[in-house]
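STRUCTURE:
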């Protein structure tokens, strides 16, 4: 994979969302989730749909998220938010966004 850059896309009192990108791929990271309940989940789902629209507008073929292999809580959250398993790569389970 080509060298990538990242930045904080969204930060609030409940969670933080970072984007990592290069010319080939756009990846969502949730480095911190401070509070999790139904309203936070709905907020995440809305933000992910916006990020997906943003990625398509930039010309990326899809949106991905990377979860450390074995982190079942974050993997489950990814699935609830509309991601499906794609492949394992460099110690991460990579998921592809399909929407909710």
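SEQUENCE:
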């Amino acid at each position: 994979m080509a060298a990538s850059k990242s930045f904080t896309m969204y930060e609030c009192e409940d969670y933080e969302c970072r984007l990592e990108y290069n010319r080939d791929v756009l990846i969502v990271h949730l480095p911190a989730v401070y509070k999790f309940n139904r309203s936070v989940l709905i907020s995440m789902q809305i933000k992910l749909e916006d990020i997906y629209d943003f990625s398509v507008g930039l010309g990326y073929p899809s949106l991905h998220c990377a979860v450390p292999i074995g982190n079942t809580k974050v993997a489950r959250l990814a699935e609830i938010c509309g991601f499906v398993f794609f492949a394992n790569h460099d110690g991460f389970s990579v998921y592809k966004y399909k929407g909710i």
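REMARK: Residues 11-97 form a domain with the Aminopeptidase fold (CATH 3.40.630.30).
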